[in-house]
Description:
Strand content: 25-35%
Strand order of the largest sheet: 1-9-8-7-6
Radius of gyration: 25 Å
Mean pLDDT: 79
Number of helices: 8
Shape: globular
Structural class: alpha+beta
Order of helices and strands: HEHHHHEHHEEHEEEEEEEEEEEE
Number of strands: 16
Distance between the termini: 67 Å
Amino acid sequence: MKLDLLVKTIVLFFILNTMSMVGFTQIVQSDCSAPGYVEAFYKEDADQITLQTTYTPAPTIFFPSPSPSLYAYQNNQDDVDIPEALSDTILSALIAVYNATSLPQADSVINIYNIHPYETFTMSRLYLAADTTYPWAMNLWNEIAPTGQPFIDSLMVRYAMVSDSAYWLSNSSDLVVRLISDSNYNAPALSLVFELIPEVTYAEMIPALGDGDNITATINLDHVELIYSVGWGDCLAGCIQRRFWKFKVYYDCEVEFMESYGSSNPPYPPLITSIPENSYNSPNAYPNPLESHIKLCNTPENAHYAIFNMMGQELTRGNIDKDGIIDLNFLSPGEFLLRMVSEETSQFIRLVKY
């Protein structure tokens, strides 16, 4: 009897020791399909993750240049286009985690913290600067297309771009035009293509502001590894704290939770999709993502707010009323920063508007 007990003790010790070394994992069968509006939302994430994974700093350019007034170039389509096959693979993995409702950790990254990749690269908009002595530049200013500049026009047609806003550079004859597209592209590479045109002073993607939540993907032979992370603590300068959740998504849509690590759990969800059971007495905003209005909760007395776009430009400001409801119908779909300020604190919350 004592020998049996000793053997059982040794076996139990071995099992517990093995579990402590490899960590506790869970695997469930999921689904890689979703309703159209969910797929469209996560397609943006998949394109962003793909661009972060594959971006190369310069396209391949060839200049025959038969004369100073005649020039031509050819850019590698793969440099500007986001690789569709890779994006679709990552999209399927993201949706599988979204559908893995029986995994508590999937609920954490999808519903509680609502994690999406940080917009390191803008994908559908860029800035172009040009001297207003060129007639085509003024046509861009006046949103006239075609502009009369053949290379500008060909790129705008090829990448379905239009001019939607413009402003003058101070102490300069240059104006800056924002070009937008209804499709996603490798905007840094596309900016370099525009800069090859001699009349263009410069072209650049719209830079991201600060730091925040993120998702990274690694493609393996039998699965996609997704790592979700929440960042907090002075994220405008670079998040001081970060918590990670790692998943394996197999190509048959099984989802395996591997581990969580990093800083201890954030004191409150930075993006809240419903009223939390425990609001942690910290200021927050819901619903988020939003359609038209948000409600601010747990705000200090005499607080006010300001809303910025991801370039840091202030769009609106006001005092926070007792009901805490703010009408944001005027905002276009996209990402924004809400700043709440009081005598005691100043805090940023990232907003997403459909």
